[in-house]
């Protein structure tokens, strides 16, 4: 996968390459051990605590041994889960090899299990590849509900509490969004690269005081962070992480995933540590503490997490916050180009509150309810993480007359939850007005309960200021063909987005221009003043 904004000299074997080289080893390993895995999981399942003999929730029939694996891998998961939820209801059971998996497809069901009963549902599945092998169980989104999780979660939540977001993130978000919109005016074809750079820079500046100035100037350590993120996303894409469902592979010497994971882990460990060590060295040299890393190091007495947990904890900011925000921004441009009346309403609102002579700021937020509602509707309409991050049950349970085994993977089917006609009128329509009229309508793109995204406020604030500034300064429209007709943009959830854990739109044509020469000039002057 090519990086969007930095040159990446490191060559890292992708899992794909790896898999193709070791295809025969993998196939024979799978064939040899699948039977063992089946019997291990069966016996575990039979001895599970189900005294009433309750049935498992309904679901599509699977095959012996592999369960429903063949129906999932290599497919676009969003339409499949939507189809299953229509056929089997709000709680579905499938099996991936020996692993029981529950799919939750309604807001009340997901809230009951993942929020009200959070004590039983705040674990994470055993991500053997992404968590254990590649990240030594240190990376927060994948850590089980254990003591380390509590220490790291406390650290991360503290650094993203509302006051900290206002103080640390807002000034950086403001400058980066101005640069983003200004760059897009000057070079509209590269709009996606500018988004990726701005989002990455917001995180790297706030967390480590390492702004990303331009692609070629990026420091090696920053390139490594980008690279680590790309490799991880690739490794956890559906179909490449088979080892997660064949846990016995860990005892197989030279199992194909091991060398790859080791190289990844070495780079991750040294990169996250170096970023923290540098912050420490800067503090000791008397430089001002401008980053979250430096401020954290200034308060050692408050930290329950040890040094290693601290640097991995801060590493999770980029990993969890870069693609999610960057892709949400791409979907924003898609939504605006395909819903011109929404952009017009956002423009009218920002014009009436801000006017042409200054740029919108966070102080305007309370006066821009339609723009805020548009951000919420964006996250509802095309949720960037259509299956969030799966939870795991840490105890067996009973719900709606069904048995829920301990250790089950729990997948929130966010798309179906957001398209539930019982909750949202005309759910297929992109209509921000619904959140203006009824602010208590739900939205679950940031997950649930004890594992809810700690970066929610950061992300909402990024997209809010981005939309307000885009509405203030830009026209975003469909491109025209040579006959002057609109080139249509496909927004279909199945067709228009690449399969995977992040709902990334395939490239689409869009026309981006400044609303007026005066506004473009004011923006350019502001960027010049703000420097970097
Ligand atoms: C549009 C942007 C974002 C979306 C849609 C998003 C979504 C999510 C979701 C669905 C989860 C899992 C929740 C669950 O398990 O129930 C999560 C976890 C997490 N997110 Fe975000 N996120 C976004 C941005 C961010 C940002 C900007 C940061 C940090 C700067 C961040 C940091 C994290 C971390 C550290 C976790 C792990 C929490 C845990 O495992 O307990 N996220 N996010």
TrEMBL record:
What is the membrane topology noted in the UniProt record heading this document?
Single-pass membrane protein
Reported cofactor(s): heme
Q: Where does heme bind?
A: 453
Recorded metabolic or biological pathway in which this protein acts: Secondary metabolite biosynthesis
Q: Which PROSITE patterns match?
A: CYTOCHROME_P450
What CDD domains does UniProt report for this protein, alphabetically? Answer: CYP64-like (cd11065)
So which domain of life are we looking at? Eukaryota
Q: What is the lineage of its organism?
A: Eukaryota, Fungi, Dikarya, Basidiomycota, Agaricomycotina
- Gene Ontology molecular function: heme binding; iron ion binding; monooxygenase activity; oxidoreductase activity, acting on paired donors, with incorporation or reduction of molecular oxygen
**Organism from which the protein derives:** Hypholoma sublateritium (strain FD-334 SS-4)
Q: Please provide the record's keywords in A-Z order.
A: Glycoprotein, Heme, Iron, Membrane, Metal-binding, Monooxygenase, Oxidoreductase, Transmembrane, Transmembrane helix
* GO CC aspect terms: membrane
> What compartments host this protein?
Membrane
- Entries under Pfam families matching the protein: p450
The protein, known as: Cytochrome P450
Sequence similarity: Belongs to the cytochrome P450 family.
